[in-house]
Every structure is written in C-alpha cells, then in structure tokens.
Amino acid sequence: MIRFDHITKKYPGTTRPALNSIDVEILRGEFVFLVGASGSGKSSCLRLVLKEEKPTSGSIHVLGQDLRSISNRKVPYFRRNMGVVFQDFRLLPNKTVFDNVAFSLQVIGKSRGFIQEAVPDTLKMVGLAEKSQRLPHELSGGEQQRVAIARAIVNKPQILLADEPTGNLDPTTSAEIMSLLASINASGTTVIMATHEAGIVDQMQRRVIELVHGEIVRDERQGGYATASIPTILPAPTTDAPASEPAPVAAVYARPAAAPKPALTHPSAPVPETSLSLHQAAAAAVAAAASPVSSPVSRPEPAAPAPVVVPPTEDAPHTPVPPMTRPVLPVAQDDEPEQLTLAEKLGLRAPGEKPDQTGEQNVGPTR
Ligand SMILES: Nc1ncnc2c1ncn2[C@@H]1O[C@H](COP(=O)(O)OP(=O)(O)OP(=O)(O)O)[C@@H](O)[C@H]1O
Known about the structure:
Layout: E1 2-9, E2 19-26, E3 31-36, H1 42-49, E4 57-62, E5 65-66, H2 75-79, E6 82-86, H3 97-106, H4 112-125, H5 141-153, E7 159-163, H6 171-186, E8 190-194, H7 198-204, E9 207-212, E10 215-220, E11 231-233, E12 252-254, H8 278-289, E13 340-341, H9 342-345, E14 362-363
Parallel strand pairs: 3-8, 3-9, 6-7, 7-8
Antiparallel strand pairs: 1-2, 1-4, 4-5, 9-10, 11-12, 13-14
Helix pairs in contact: 3-4, 3-5, 4-5, 5-6
This protein binds adenosine-5'-triphosphate (ATP).
Adenosine-5'-triphosphate (ATP) binds at residues 11, 14, 18, 36, 38-44, 267, 269, 271-272, 274-275, 277.
Keywords: ATP-binding, Cell cycle, Cell division, Cell membrane, Membrane, Nucleotide-binding
Domain ABC transporter: 2-238
Protein name: Cell division ATP-binding protein FtsE
C-alpha cells in the first residue's frame, strides 16, 4: 500500500538529510506509529506520502502508484484517497460542524444528496451527531479533533495520516481519540500516526517504526514507545494484503544497535522558512479564510504517558466506517499558482479547477 525504496530526503540549505535511505513497507489495514525525537523525520515521512514533498532520491509507491508518475496537477486527486488529521485541528472557524465536514465533499463535487447522507453518518460515527450545528469554538478540543477526523474520513479514504493528533489534548480525551482512530482502522483504513506520546503507543501495542536522525532504528510489529531490543522488520513481499488478513510477520533481522535513543522532547527546532510545512500551509489557509477563532496552534509539552488508557484495539467498536480519507493538504509547492482558493490550499481541488458553489473563500498566497 505504501512503500519507500531507498528514500533520502534532503531539504535545501541543510547538510544532513532529514531521511537517510529509508526502506519501509506499510500494508493495507495496518495501524502504524511513527515515533522518534523532534527532527527525526516523522513529518517528512508523512509529507512524502502525501507528495507534498519529493524525495531527493529513491522511489515511493502509494496505492500502487509510483508517486513520480503523478503530475503536480493530479496531486489533489491523488490525495483524495487520503485523509489527514493535524495536531491543531485546522477547522474552518466560521462554519458549523456539519459544514466543516461537508466542505471537503462539496469541493470535490459530491451531490447535495450524498452530502446530506454522508455527513450525518460520519458525525454519528465520531459521536457528534447532536452537535452538527455548533461552531468550532463552541466545542471542546477533543470534539474539535473529532470534527477534523470526521472531515478526514467522510469520503472514505484508504489511508489516514495523523500528525500528532493528540498533541493538544489531555490524556483522557487523547484516549477517546485513539479509540476512534482504532475504530476507523478496524473498518479497513490504514492509519499512520506520528506521535511523541509514549502512553498511547504503549497501550495500543501496534506496529512501531522509530526514527533517529532520519534512519529507521526499530520496526516492531507490536511495539511500545521504547523497547530494549531494536529489531527491524523487513518489508513483506506483497504490497496489498487485504485488511482482513493478519499482517504478515516478516523476517526479523538484527540491525546494528542504533544510536542511543534520544530524549523524546517536543519539537523545538524551527522549520526553515524556505519551505512551508504541511502544518503551516494548512494552518495559514484556514487562518486566512476565517476570522480569529479556535484552533490552538502552540505545541504543548508531551502528555504524561502513564495515565493514558487506550482501549485495546480488539475492543474498539467496529462501527462501519468507510475505508478512505480526504486530503487536507496544501498542493505541491511548484504547482501553486499565485492566488489559491482554500480548497486548493487544502489539496481538495487542483489549482485552476473551476470551483462550484460551496461558499469557498479565496485566500492569498501564504508564501
Ligand atoms: N522545509 C524544511 N526545510 C529544511 N529543513 C526541514 C524542513 N522540514 C523539516 N526539516 C528538517 O528535517 C528534519 C526532520 O524534520 P521533521 O519535521 O520531518 O521531523 P519530525 O520528526 O516530524 O519532528 P517533530 O516531532 O518536531 O515534528 C529536521 O532536521 C528539520 O529541521
């Protein structure tokens, strides 16, 4: 489903690669944690999957497609197979819960009838059926993240990428969000989540890929946040094992002991201005499109791991969830026209594509 072959990513103006010859394969239906210290390359991995960034060398296959073969203009369509959830929610503050979720369907031209059916179903699934007419600032942080998740899955994406989705939430609320993500995964959606939160990773006992300085030092089928042993699982030979099948446990080989595990502190290094991150671009789009409101954007210290109680996956409600996600990402840099609509900024529509009557707001360039 997702395969990195010898992926190296070096950002302009940097000496050390953010990712250094990464080989990894993620199968359909897996739930994968990306862990590692700030700057270890987690977000870079997600940006590469989304084709927000291009690798310096190596090849990436997502959903059977070599990303090099997808033109920049086609990127928004490619991203319709993926949903994205951020730490800071990225909701449209002047739109109701319903409209926030409906927005992502409107911009890809779904019919009114489809929207009227899909949005309530999805809000029900995330436990917000009763709050569809609220504005984001009338919701708790956990509820806002549920809206963001609803927006990400309403079009049934095959892959859900979550970048620190619990980073702004307290442990109890984080556990609820993890239960929801587990439920979405149980329905067949592949979930890849970057996190610093040890308690969550330890409770979930899912596949853990640990990065240190852009290299994979651990890949465990059912791992915790930190493990004494550092086995690495070789990519399985087949790419698209169905979700219903148990993920094949591939050969395990011992890798040379990795560098000492760095302190897993929260991000502190500023991202160079030369490249707007996925987070920054989407946040800027939302901020530009609306009046000041809700979304907390500051990154708090990591939550204390111990108190997090995440229901085991097996116990997660197997609510029918459509397997899929929606793009909430900015379009590729080199494809950006000077004036983008919000939908274009969020990666929902190709730049220049004719907008429909969705109340979409124009926003100026963010870089
Ligand atoms: N646009 C960019 N331009 C230059 N360097 C970048 C850019 N984005 C990331 N980097 C660098 O690449 C490395 C990996 O960054 P990345 O954001 O992928 O790490 P991360 O593990 O997600 O960190 P965090 O947990 O803080 O989000 C870091 O050294 C970072 O400074």
